[in-house]
């Protein structure tokens, strides 16, 4: 299955949000690119000037643009990027965002039909709902990372919905659509990342593995071990042994 990177910017072309496929394809994380301009990140020595100008022209004129361009990953490797960029309007005149869909050309066949890369796709009324989902998802990630709410073992869908002044049904839908996980799985990904960080710090020298997990928001030992293995492919003990090696 090919990956589709999604990039949402504001009207000034500054990144508001990227999905996980963007990170997989480019190597850049959300934290590394938020607030930056996509065109400043990925070009390199082999990037085609004609493609750059075609994209810039589409952005200036606020019209959809489709192009193939040589981009560069964070590690410096080049790849063929197939992309389409759509302007998004709140009404007929007010530009609010740009949304781009990108795929790694090496992962798909020449004749592979990818609906999201269809330049005729309209990002108006129905798609604005999707844009609102991306915006809320960005807010969800921000509040989780800034306030570290996932460290609270009693964090619930309702608690987070109340903080974001939305309802649980919509919040659950957005998390599922944008992350591919249900709410609990989504929160647990943050907890596992914190566990890994704490283990890298050496927290296991003073606490049991489950003791570390409890500090990171887990309240059930068997759940912690299962989630850790599901996400990392390793048991906590195996992960720790790899750190030592």
What does this structure look like?
By secondary structure, the protein is α+β, with helices and mostly antiparallel strands. The protein folds into three domains: 114 residues, PAS domain (Beta-Lactamase); 52 residues, Arc Repressor Mutant, subunit A; 57 residues. Helix content is 48%, strand content 16%. Strands 2-1-5-4-3 form a five-stranded antiparallel sheet. The longest helix has 23 residues. The chain is globular. The relative contact order is 0.09.
What's the β-strand tally? Answer: 5
Query: Regions with pLDDT < 50 over 5+ consecutive residues?
Result: 123-127
Describe the main β-sheet briefly.
5 strands, antiparallel
In which range does the helix fraction lie?
A: 40-55%
Mean pLDDT: 86
Give the topology:
Elements: E1 5-10, E2 15-18, H1 20-26, H2 30-33, H3 38-41, H4 49-61, E3 65-72, E4 78-89, E5 95-104, H5 125-147, H6 157-163, H7 168-179, H8 183-201, H9 209-215, H10 221-232, H11 236-244
Antiparallel strand pairs: 1-2, 1-5, 3-4, 4-5
Question: What attributes characterize this protein structure?
Answer:
about 15% strand; 11 helices; five-stranded antiparallel β-sheet; single chain; 5 strands; Arc Repressor Mutant, subunit A; 3 domains; Beta-Lactamase; alpha+beta; about 240 residues; globular
């Amino acid at each position: 299955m090919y990956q589709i990177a999604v990039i949402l910017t504001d009207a000034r072309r500054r990144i508001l949000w990227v999905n996980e496929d963007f990170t997989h394809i480019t190597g850049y994380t959300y934290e590394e690119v938020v607030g930056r301009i996509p065109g400043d990140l990925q070009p390199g020595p082999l990037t085609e000037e004609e493609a750059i100008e075609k994209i810039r022209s589409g952005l200036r004129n606020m019209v959809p643009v489709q192009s193939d361009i040589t981009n560069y990953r964070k590690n410096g490797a080049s790849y063929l990027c197939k992309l389409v960029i759509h302007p998004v309007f709140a009404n007929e005149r007010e530009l609010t965002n740009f949304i781009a869909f990108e795929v790694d050309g090496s992962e798909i066949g020449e004749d592979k039909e990818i609906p999201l890369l269809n330049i005729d796709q309209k990002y108006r009324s129905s798609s604005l709902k999707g844009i609102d989902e991306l915006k809320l998802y960005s807010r969800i990630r921000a509040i989780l990372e800034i306030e570290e709410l996932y460290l609270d073992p009693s964090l619930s869908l309702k608690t987070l919905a109340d903080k974001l002044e939305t309802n649980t049904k919509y919040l659950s839908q957005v998390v599922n659509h944008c992350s591919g996980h249900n709410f609990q799985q989504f929160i647990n990904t943050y907890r596992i990342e914190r566990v890994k960080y704490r283990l890298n710090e050496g927290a296991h020298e003073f606490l049991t593995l489950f003791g570390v997990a409890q500090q990171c928001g887990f309240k059930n030992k068997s759940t912690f071990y299962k989630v850790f293995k599901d996400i990392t492919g390793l048991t906590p003990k195996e992960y720790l042994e790899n750190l030592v090696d």
